[in-house]
Amino acid sequence: MSELDRTIHEPARLRILTILSGVDVSDFNFLFSTLGLTKGNLSSHMDKLEKAGYVEVRKSFNGRVPHTEFVITDAGRTALSDYWREIDAIRSLHGKGGD
Prior knowledge:
Blueprint (H helix, E strand, L loop, with lengths): L5 H4 L1 H11 L4 E2 H8 L3 H13 L3 E8 L2 E8 L1 H22 L4
Antiparallel strand pairs: 1-3, 2-3
C-alpha cells in the first residue's frame, strides 16, 4: 500500500476536488459559499491544487468584474481516484482485523 497523497488528504482540498469531480466547471463564488472557507483560505488551497496539476484555474472578466473558474484536470481525477482506492484499501485492512 502506498502513502496517501498529502495534497489531497487535507480535508478542504479533498472537499474541493470531490466537488469539482462532479461538475464540468465551478466558479469561485460557488465554492466559497459551498465550502464555508474564507476567500484567502480557498485561494490558498486552490493555489496548492493548481501547483500540483490537479486543478486548472481560468480567469476572465465579466465587464470589469473579475471572474475565476476552476476545472479538475485529468491528473486531478486520477489522483482523486487513486486516493479513494488507497482509502478503500485501508478500510478493507481494518475490516479484516488489520489494526
